[in-house]
Design brief:
222 residues; mainly alpha; Four Helix Bundle (Hemerythrin (Met), subunit A); 8 helices
């Protein structure tokens, strides 16, 4: 269970505890309010001794009502803040990448960009022998990152987009690791894989848009 899960559960549990205390103080607040509305508290006794006792008791009830009213307000505010924070934490978890997923997304972006550059180098007549060892290394890394399971806690849509992206990275990596140097000299092969990379880029953009990843910042890293 990730930290945000504990944060959500802890805050929600605290909000529920506050709601119980809120009900407790509300009950006593309205009980005293009801008591003070009785006729006996609207007319002072004529007898001096009884009047002193009446004033003392009424004052005590008013103090209790005020104290319970303050407690009601405090627990209401704390409950709302706790519940709001809990649901914000849950919303944040549903719509934001974990540090592990963010690392995979960033590395996937950098690797596919690098792979596309190497493909274009070969297509434009560059040396296959020079690029091939780096090419194989990049392909292996794509398989490694693509094999990683999506972190739990994401929304259904977010997890689906991320899973499709990981699978596409893994598949192209697996296919490319089996290619020989001779196969990479064929323009048809290169063009086919460039099309596959374009599909990965489309899935990549969908992930970036959903999780609000700053692509401009990634381009500066590349």
């Amino acid at each position: 269970m990730v930290l945000l899960d504990w944060f959500f559960i802890g805050l929600l549990s605290f909000a529920m505890l506050c709601s119980l205390l809120l009900l407790f103080y509300l009950f006593y607040f309205f009980s005293i309010q009801k008591e003070l509305k009785k006729k006996q508290w609207h007319k002072r006794p004529k007898n001096k001794v009884k009047r002193k006792k009446w004033l003392r008791t009424r004052k005590m009830l008013e103090k209790q009502r005020k104290r319970y009213g303050i407690n009601v307000f405090i627990f209401l505010v704390v409950m709302l803040i706790s519940a709001g924070s809990a649901f914000y934490a849950r919303y944040y978890q549903l719509t934001n990448l974990t540090s592990d997923d963010a690392k995979v997304v960033v590395q996937g972006y950098l690797l596919t960009e690098d792979l596309e550059k190497k493909m274009m180098t070969i297509k434009e007549g560059g040396s296959v022998e020079k690029v091939y060892p780096q090419f194989q290394e990049v392909s292996s890394l794509l398989v490694s990152y693509g094999n990683r399971p999506v972190s739990g806690g994401l929304s259904t849509e977010g997890a689906k987009l991320l899973t499709r992206y990981y699978v596409s990275m893994k598949n192209i990596g697996l296919n490319l690791t089996t290619l020989s140097q001779e196969q990479l000299t064929e323009q048809e092969t290169i063009n086919g894989y460039l099309k596959d990379l374009k599909k990965i880029n489309e899935r990549q953009k969908a992930v970036f848009n959903y999780f609000k990843v700053n692509e401009s910042a990634l381009k500066q890293k590349n």
